[in-house]
Amino acid sequence: YVQELLQFENTFDGFKKAIEPLAERLKIGRVAGHLHIEANIKSVQDEDRHDVFYAGDGLYSEKGKYQKTFQAVENGYCELTAFPYENVEWSEEEKEDIALLLEVLYLHVTRSRLIRKTREYSYCNLITMLPNSAGFVRIIQQHLQDQTICQYNGFYFNLKSFGLLSYKYGGAEGDLMIKRYAVAVRKWLAEDETLAHLGGDNFMALVKKSRTAEFLHLLEKVEVTAKYPVYIAAAAGAYEITAKDRDPGNIMNGLSIAVSYARQHKLPYAFLTDKMLEETVDVQRMEQMLPEALEKREFQVYYQPKVDIRTGQIVGTEALARWIHNGEVIQPFRFIPTMERNGFIIHLDLYILKRVCEAINEWIEKGYKLVPISVNISRNDISGVGHDPRMLAERIIRIIKEYDIDPKYIIIEVTETTEASEQKELYDFIKNMSEAGIATSIDDFGTGCSTLSVLRDFPVNEIKIDRSFINHEAFSTQDQIIIKSIIQMARQLNLNVITEGVETEEQARFLLELGCNHAQGYLYDKPLEQSAFESRLSVGGYDRKI
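The chain above was modelled as a monomer; its predicted structure follows.
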């Protein structure tokens, strides 16, 4: 009998079949169990299961029952009970057999639970134990099957500035914040509403349509810690589910499009629209065109001069990519974000560097007086998935050597970052550039949260003050103090300072008074085709002086 029990299938029906001969001999009328697991790191609430493993045809008695309790591996217990036929009292020898029976049953109960939990865990996130993307799809499928899906709106939301919080408080505290966030939002939801955790700081939800406005209000401010008041807002994409929606994939895709739109446009939330879908189709078509466009050299280099405000002389220029397709100039804001998302940006950046090196050699042959040229390198090239800053630096150095270019004519322009891991990679990259004698420039300086540490720790040669500091009708005292302090610090550290986005003489005069001598912007020129820039380079600058 024991051998049969040990081999029975992992189902309660299998147990019933295996126990029948033994139950008849021992006059067992019923076998039941209670499994209790207390809330723990993998479960936000207690787990209680009551199961009947065997029920005979006859009556059974509570009197004389035999009970055995097993300590569960997790914080809990499993209580198994055998009940005799009516008016039956077991002998000590029979109780020993029943005890063995219950021990074997316990092995199968724990095995069954392990299989069930393993299956469940494949559909949930192991940090929050909420459904993951696969689990969320299953829930959508169930609502579709029950024809209840139209009662809900779908949401995809991403926590704002969570990377900065995780960097500030550490990874372990970051995970705790994610858990607290999940608990707070799940507590607000109704029992028939769903919260899913896709990983990192990305969540999805199904919320009753009548509660949509309240839910969006909730996402504006959720407390994530008990020690000190820290609140997190989210950017959300929303999808109004209708009777036409029969495919979970379409719903998931619609949510992804909506949240991307909300993040790109810095909105608290955005509902999916037909226009968003059309734009997505355009982006997908563009993605398919990019490799061929690069191969056909449809990308051209435009040059925007950097000018000495005092003299009007050109002191440098920035190389900018323009896509010329079928005679149309496609602006960077239409293709750069797509390239950064799909990882294609590194091919464009290195392509532009090669074209710049070709241009420098042409200008040397024509006898032009050369100026340093800034070439943009995307942060994704340095710290993207699978990228190595050292290998990127080696590729840049190799290209410059292949074209026999003096490194003093190349400046590699990068943007600062708030992510701790990215800062380390950015530092390594800039250090490698410096060791090779190649200058580096920090673009959009002053807009990130690591400004002072960049000045202190990074071996950069130039900083570009972001246009937002001068893009005002009137310059405030605060503007003057901030810009002047940046300029003074940079000078003391022997760094060149340039301000971008200069469009008026008033702005140029303002910068000059504060000690910034170099500017770039429409006051002097928009980005120029190579031939137009050559004409400007041949005369050396502009008549405009401040």
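The chain has a mean pLDDT of 88.
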